[in-house]
Amino acid sequence: MRKHVIGILDYGAGNCTSVKNTINKLNFRTRLIKCEDDFKKISLLLIPGVGAFPSAMAAINKLKLVGPIHEYAKHGNPIIGVCLGMQLLADCSYELGFSQGLGLIPGEVKQLTGMDWHIGWNNLEIINDESNYRLLDGSSYYFNHSYEFKAANEYVVGISRNNHTVVAMVKKANICGVQFHPEKSQNDGLELLVGLINSMISDGESSND
Amino acid sequence: MIKKRIVGVVTILNGWAVQSIGYKKYLPLGKPECLVENLDRWGADEIMVQVIDRSTRQLGPDIQLIDKIANTNISTPIIYAGGINTEEQAIEVIRAGADRICLDAMLHHGIGGVSKLAHKLGAQALIASIPIKKLSNGELTYFNYLTNKKSNFNAELLDLFSNKLISEALIIDADNEGKNNSFNFDVINVFPLEDVPLILFGGLSSSELLNTGLSNSRVSAVSVGNFLNYKEHSIQNLKSKLGLQAIRPANYKQESWT
């Protein structure tokens, strides 16, 4: 059976090595995406993230990758954003001033409510009825952020609680984001990641048939 | 609720994992990547890799080591400490596979670069190392390892915390590091900012001491070094003994994602 190729957006400051190693461990092939040509023949685009929103967007703009990402998404191809990568899917962010995002899922990135940081392991609570994700309810994942994606309610799939609720998972058609780091969340994270990648690729293939 | 964390610490000297006793005496333990793999398998909440000779020997961060660890296929968050003096070095450390970095030398000799670093990597990736030592007159003080002298919490350093440019402080009881069951909780009070989440390290070994640390509202994590290396499944055993709701339960799950 053909191994799917997962494209990992490499915009300079992200934790590409960690993500690449994990995806390879899950038995997928990987390709670092640094220019438009790299998008050819990938089965899914993964946007990783460690860093601050403005510098990440500046790097993506500098590499002229916003257009190719939009083009890739427009054709129903699957995209997963992880941590900062999920926040980059938003319309804009207020981290260190105002910045435009990729605008793939409606919403804004704002400072967490009622806490400065959300660092450590927390449970995911699935709040909509998409059966694919029900199995993830209650699993524990590693979070490390101080801003969150305030997505429009219809796109919020999962939350976590820490005095206030935190948006933990978003999805709009072929675009999905998780605020936590599945690649750093041991077995629960790896199970989620392999399931999510396979289901997103499979959904993308059926919609493109 | 977010859980309080148990951080497994691997101390490295001359490329080898060592058991450190007060950062004065060292006993070899083996290859760092093997110890990291054990902590990952046993379910540590984070793993801190501290390379203690990189700053003093001005070698910069050990990128080769991080690369080696990243290639072991572990899936636990890695905090790297040791030899980071510049923004470029810090970014290189994250690119090589670390998730967070712990700053020490840079807080004394390159503090101006820390805010730039926070803007680039995000403050959640930054931890400040705060070693506390007892002076001959009995006073507990913030200590600078590079000059081997008492240091001060100057306004520039405290502003980094107040302006949320550093997310957590690693409070090290340097005198008791490596000594069984000896963490002195008075060191917490030396750090002046009460709203900064603290990670405790140095002589924390028994479940009683860890319980005391984790029950402190200022503490977000406790770090354990040498004591995790004596027995298989030490993290799971420790977590089971603690039995606290505030921590993530011990994880014995087998790999099933292949």
Largest sheet of chain A: 8 strands, mixed
Low-confidence stretches of chain B: none
What would the average pLDDT of chain A be, to the nearest integer?
A: 92
Helix content range of chain A = 25-40%
* Number of DSSP-assigned strands of chain B: 12
End-to-end CA span of chain B: 30 Å
SSE arrangement:
The complex is a heterodimer of chains A (209) and B (258).
Chain A: E1 5-9, H1 16-25, E2 29-33, E3 44-47, H2 53-62, H3 66-74, E4 79-82, H4 84-87, E5 92-93, E6 99-100, E7 107-111, E8 118-123, E9 125-126, H5 131-134, E10 140-145, E11 147-151, E12 156-162, E13 164-172, E14 175-178, H6 186-208
Parallel strand pairs in A: 1-2, 1-3, 3-4, 4-14, 5-7
Antiparallel strand pairs in A: 5-6, 7-11, 8-10, 9-12, 12-13, 13-14
Chain B: E1 5-13, E2 16-21, E3 25-30, H1 32-41, E4 46-51, H2 63-70, E5 78-81, H3 87-96, E6 100-103, H4 105-109, H5 112-121, E7 126-134, E8 140-144, E9 149-150, H6 155-162, E10 168-173, E11 198-201, H7 207-215, E12 219-224, H8 234-242
Parallel strand pairs in B: 1-4, 1-12, 4-5, 5-6, 6-7, 7-10, 10-11, 11-12
Antiparallel strand pairs in B: 1-2, 2-3, 7-8, 8-9
Helix pairs in contact in B: 3-5, 7-8
Describe the structure.
The complex is a heterodimer of chains A (209) and B (258). Helices cover 29% and strands 32% of the residues of chain A. An eight-stranded mixed β-sheet of chain A has the order 2-1-3-4-14-13-12-9. Chain A has a four-stranded mixed β-sheet with strand order 6-5-7-11, with helices on one face. Chain A has a two-stranded antiparallel ribbon with strand order 8-10. Chain A has 209 residues and is of the alpha/beta class. Chain B has a single domain, classed as Aldolase class I (TIM Barrel, Alpha-Beta Barrel). Chain B has helices spanning 32-41, 63-70, 87-96, 105-109, 112-121, 155-162, 207-215, 234-242; strands at 5-13, 16-21, 25-30, 46-51, 78-81, 100-103, 126-134, 140-144, 149-150, 168-173, 198-201, 219-224. The interface between A and B is large, with 48 and 46 residues.
